[in-house]
Design goal:
It contains seven helices and 15 strands. It is α+β, with helices and mostly antiparallel strands and about 350 residues long.
């Protein structure tokens, strides 16, 4: 099966004092070992949430499905279930052949018997202090939910919590018992996309050759700002611009010779971007060569020898086995990603 691997550097994982860069106790291997014990203690799926969801801010629930650790490499594999927006278990859709203005919707529901959502799969390598989201056609990358989930676990579910007599968490310690200063310890899980430094170095080395900036984004006609842009594209060319029912990708190109500071800022903002409507951005040299920033993040597609059975998530042990078979190749690609031209 083809999967998209996106790699992240693990910036923090464990318990810290304010201002510290290294954990005072716990770490990647220990945190996920504790999570596995907690998730496999007999609780039901609906009781594996770790943080308060907030529908008003579109923060949905995340659930623990399974995890496994490779006894040889100590790599950790984790499967989470990411709830999607629903109306008491009902999911709505619109027929693609209907005209705009039609209000009829289709619905499918589970009558409260299931949690609508998608799985997300992760591979953690403590040895390299990185992890990868492994996205298949049936799954989501789930990085935002992972951070919410792990920070929720460290804060609200881990055995390192220290309670007062009213059963309120007042701090964190290595043995879960009160000790002076435990209220100064705080949990943190933080990860940032792994960066392709070679691509950035090439752009900086060719700064004087850059003549144009290009940006590719996805527009949705039903969104007012996007609709205005789509209509402007066809203005003076069509009396009635087309009303697209699906999102459309559009490429902007503008003459631009950035300063080193502007180039670094564009690269940094693209690197940190989580908005999926921004598809790509890049620069065109005076030779006509185009260098796109999508390669600034270490992300690539790879065929894994793994099978998904109908109406099942991928078995975490099967995923472990498939990644282990290709581990050397995957880590080599992580270290030397192919830049996107």
């Amino acid at each position: 099966m083809e999967a998209k691997f996106t790699f992240y550097n693990i910036e923090k994982c464990g318990y810290y004092t304010f201002g510290s860069t290294d954990p005072i106790f716990s770490g990647v291997t220990d945190v996920f070992a504790k999570l596995a014990l907690w998730g496999a203690d007999g609780r039901e799926l609906e009781n594996t949430t770790t943080y308060e969801h907030d529908r008003d801010n579109e923060i949905m629930r995340t659930f623990y499905v399974d995890s496994a650790t490779c006894p040889v490499t100590n790599d950790i594999f984790l499967t989470l279930w990411n709830e999607v927006e629903n109306d008491n278990g009902k999911i709505y859709g619109m027929a693609p052949n209907k005209k705009p203005g039609n209000t009829e919707i289709l619905e499918t529901g589970f009558d409260g018997l299931a949690i609508p959502g998608f799985p997300s799969y992760f591979w953690f390598s403590p040895e390299n202090n990185v992890f990868a989201s492994i996205k298949f056609d049936h799954s989501t990358s789930g990085k935002k939910n992972l951070e919410l989930y792990m920070n929720g676990f460290l804060s609200n579910k881990s055995p390192y919590r220290v309670f007062n007599e009213e059963d309120v968490v007042i701090g964190y310690s290595q043995d879960g018992k009160y000790a002076k200063g435990c209220d100064k310890n705080h949990p943190r899980f933080l990860a940032k996309k792994r960066k392709n430094n070679k691509l950035e170095a090439e752009l900086l080395a060719n700064l004087s050759n850059i003549r144009k900036f290009v940006k590719k984004e996805s527009l949705l006609y039903s969104t007012p700002d996007d609709r205005q842009l789509i209509e402007r594209v066809f203005s003076r060319l069509l009396d009635n611009p087309p009303a697209f029912s699906k999102s459309k990708d559009i490429m902007h190109e503008v003459a631009f010779e950035p300063s080193a500071g502007q180039l670094k800022k564009i690269i940094s903002n693209f690197y940190d971007n989580e908005d999926e409507t921004l598809k790509n951005a890049g620069f065109i040299y005076n030779t006509g060569k185009r260098v796109m920033l999508k390669g600034i993040n270490v992300s690539f597609k790879f065929n894994l020898d793994v099978t998904k059975f109908e109406a099942h998530v991928i078995n975490v042990e099967a995923l472990l086995k498939a990644v282990r078979l290709s581990r050397v190749e995957l880590l080599a690609e992580m270290e030397n990603p192919i830049s996107t031209q």
